[in-house]
Specification:
Blueprint: H1 2-25, E1 32-46, E2 56-68, E3 73-90, E4 93-111, E5 119-139, E6 144-148, E7 161-175, E8 178-189, E9 200-213
Antiparallel strand pairs: 1-2, 1-9, 2-3, 3-4, 4-5, 5-6, 5-7, 7-8, 8-9
């Protein structure tokens, strides 16, 4: 699956290249926008030790910064608090694993020209995550318990960072001088989240935000 994700990102390059090269032939004033972001994560895990895991939903929020590279090209980054993880059911007990990150995306995007100011776009790149929390939860018909992943009794050694390949698409709708954006992103983790297990993050983020021009 890792190779498939990298191939998908490679396929984005020819689509993004025209927007980058346009900078030299159609110079435009640099446009910088910032704004809040809110999203819903639908996440799971993959790898040889991730058989039988279920998806879980949680939230993501933070802020984004977008820089126009040309009339149609853009670079987007930000700081996003994102709750990821997965679930499982075994012998009548429901387990939930939650791992939280501060994520920094590095995404190149291309806005498709249309006959109106509403612009669909694609984007791709990478995402660096810094772990800020991690919990195991278990419950059955008679009891429940929550344990930190740092608890010595767990016997696990979780990585403090994660890196994912990211691809997505969305739409930008003008609201006065601002832009209301709605997009979906798929992140495929390229690093093990625990050093002794073959488990990696993956999942979708369905998000929306408001991008506000700086200095306009």
């Amino acid at each position: 699956m890792r190779s498939n994700a990298l191939v998908c990102i490679a396929l984005l390059v020819p689509l993004l290249a025209p927007s980058l090269s346009a900078q030299s032939t159609n110079p435009v004033a640099a446009r910088v926008e910032i704004g809040p972001f809110m999203g819903l994560n639908y996440t799971s895990a993959y790898g040889s030790d991730a058989s039988g895991v279920n998806s879980r939903t949680d939230f993501a929020f933070g802020g984004q910064l977008e820089v126009a590279l040309s009339r149609d090209g853009m670079f987007r980054t930000g700081l996003i608090y994102s709750r990821r993880g997965f679930g499982a059911v075994e012998s009548g007990t429901t387990f939930s694993f939650e791992i939280n990150y501060i994520e920094v995306p590095f995404l190149l995007g291309y806005r498709f020209p249309t006959g109106s100011n509403i612009r669909p776009y694609i984007m791709g790149g990478g995402q660096l995550g810094f772990k800020v929390g991690c919990l195991f939860e278990g419950s059955n018909s008679t009891a429940s318990a929550t344990v930190s992943c740092e608890d010595p009794s767990i016997g696990a050694d979780f990585e403090s960072t994660d890196f994912s390949a990211v691809g997505g698409a969305g739409i930008a709708i003008p609201v006065g001088l601002d832009q209301f954006i709605v997009d979906v992103r798929y992140a495929l983790g390229l690093m093990k989240i625990e050093r002794n297990s073959e488990i990696k993050n993956r999942g979708f983020t369905f998000g929306m935000g408001l991008m506000i021009p700086v200095g306009r």
